[in-house]
Design a protein that fits this description.
The strands form 2 sheets. The chain has a 3-stranded parallel beta sheet with strand order 5-1-6. It has a 3-stranded parallel beta sheet with strand order 2-4-3. By secondary structure, the protein is mainly alpha-helical. The chain has one domain (about 1-460). It has helices at about 1-15, 15-30, 35-75, 85-95, 100-115, 130-140, 145-175, 195-205, 220-225, 230-245, 250-270, 275-290, 310-330, 350-355, 360-390, 410-425, 430-455, 455-460; strands spanning about 80-85, 120-125, 185, 300, 335, 405. Helix 3 packs parallel to helix 10 and helix 5 crosses helix 7. It is found in: Cell membrane. This is PTS system galactose-specific IIC component.
């Protein structure tokens, strides 16, 4: 009997991430009383999105693998880790059964907090559970599969996301001109960087308070940049840059430029398939949760692109792209070459909410925080590469021993996950002390930040 169960489980795992998620998403949707047609549609969309994203990653790494090696050899700059943006994280997490466990924790935590009136937010953005899942996988990996510590870490992250969603709601209303009674907010994990953004913003108030006098209109800047700030163009710049420094032929440089351009565009295009894939399941869960809350009025948290209509997000993302590339070249301890994550939409929404759209402040704060994103991506490179290889999702085109990583959201939480996971593995007294200090500092800063966001003084800032 046990052998039969084990063989069945091994067969299921052997289907691969895409087929596994097709089955799991379909069955879960049916369990939450989604119609059979919509359930199958969601499962099929998820499998297609995972397959498509894997294909784009392989396209990029196959083209850039040899050139990156030549780039490192010719320049002496040790940027030996290839950044593939958020895509490989989505592939790894949605191909892991742990993600479903973390999703269950998210639903239970949200329900408990709502019943206890610790939050007014119902988070229906189930797709972005992968952002939380990668944090859980990091803790689990570095703790040598300590699922208890991992679960506590994940639950705390989910709670912080919901507290933050409540706190930023008035600012979202102000920035987007929402009418009274609007219930839309976002609990996106990338916004957990906002406490650090707030600290730097306060330092600007003290050191260079006059900076706002020189601010400019982001929408006008976007129009002036036009195509030259598009994903196509930024990818082409990167391809030419790496090709020239890697002393490639003109033909190879052209291939790199065009491949990078289409890859960055396809990352965004294929990435848009994930949202609709999870919508039927999210709708089923929303109906289930709402029916158990006795008609209580709630905020509903969806994905961060509710803020995408603000031109400042895209203007600052374009400004930060070349800045990040320069910093990556000279930053001590960094080994990541920005590529897939060079357009920092994992940071600019947080900058927008804290500064309320002041472009110069956003750019200064973004520049200050870029190193944290690079260091975090460097730190998780070995974990991502090893995990991806174990799951059979290692991007094609990577050379033997070559690492890949992701410049993505939650750099502080990723580094905290590594520290806490390592502590749970060894219980070394020095690591325990560092962990306690880090947790205390993080908690104090977060509480201060929440109070600041909710303060009357902050809300009056235009």
């Amino acid at each position: 009997m046990l052998n039969t169960i084990q063989n069945g489980f091994d067969f299921f795992i052997g289907l691969g991430g895409a087929a596994m998620m097709f089955v799991i998403i379909t069955l879960l949707s049916l369990a939450f009383r989604v119609s059979f047609s919509k359930a199958v549609e969601g499962g099929l969309r998820m499998a297609t999105a995972l397959t498509g994203m894997s294909a784009v990653i392989s396209l990029l790494t196959s083209a850039f693998g040899p050139s990156l090696k030549a780039f490192v050899e010719s320049t002496g700059v040790s940027l030996s880790v290839t950044d593939l943006g958020w895509a490989p994280l989505a592939v790894i997490t949605w191909g892991s059964v742990y993600t479903l466990y973390f999703a269950l924790l998210a639903i239970i935590t949200n329900l408990v907090m709502l019943f206890l009136k610790l939050t007014n937010t119902l988070n229906v953005d189930l797709f972005n559970i992968w952002n939380v899942s990668i944090l859980g996988l990091i803790v689990n990996y570095f703790s040598n599969n300590n699922i208890f510590i991992t679960s506590i870490f994940v639950v705390i992250i989910i709670m912080l996301m919901l507290f933050n969603a409540d706190a930023i709601k008035p600012t979202i209303d102000q920035l987007l001109d929402y009418k009274p009674g609007n219930i839309t907010t976002t609990a996106h994990p990338s916004l957990l960087v906002m406490p650090i953004v707030m600290i730097v913003n306060k330092l600007i108030d003290i050191v260079i308070p006059f900076v706002d006098k020189f601010d400019f209109d982001a929408e006008t800047l976007n129009k002036k940049i036009g195509f030259w700030g598009s994903k196509f163009a930024i990818g082409a710049y990167l391809g030419v840059f790496i090709g020239v420094l890697g002393r490639q032929s003109v033909a190879d440089i052209c291939t790199l430029a065009f491949t990078a351009g289409v890859s960055l565009e396809l990352f965004a295009y294929v990435g848009n398939w994930f949202g609709p894939a999870i919508e039927p399941l999210s709708a089923g869960i929303e109906r289930f949760m709402s029916s158990h809350l006795r008609g209580r009025k709630l905020f509903v948290a969806i994905d961060w692109p509710i803020l995408a209509s603000r031109a400042e997000i895209w203007a600052v993302a374009n400004l930060l792209a070349p800045i990040m590339l320069i910093i990556a070249m000279i930053l001590p301890g960094n080994k990541v070459l920005p590529l897939g994550g060079i357009i920092l939409t994992v940071l600019t929404p947080a900058l927008l909410l804290v500064t309320k759209g002041r472009v110069i402040r956003m750019t200064i704060i973004g520049t200050v925080l870029v190193p944290i994103f690079l260091w975090a991506a460097t730190a998780i490179g070995p974990f991502l590469t090893k995990t991806s290889a174990k799951m059979g999702n290692l991007p094609k085109g990577l050379g033997k021993g070559q690492l890949f990583s992701s410049i993505d959201s939650d750099p502080i939480e990723k580094l905290m996950g590594i520290l806490i996971g390592s502590t749970a593995k060894t219980w070394d007294l020095k690591l325990i002390l560092f962990s306690i200090i880090a947790i205390l500092i993080y908690a104090i800063v977060f509480i201060w930040y929440i109070k600041t966001m909710k303060s009357k003084k902050f809300r009056e800032v235009k």
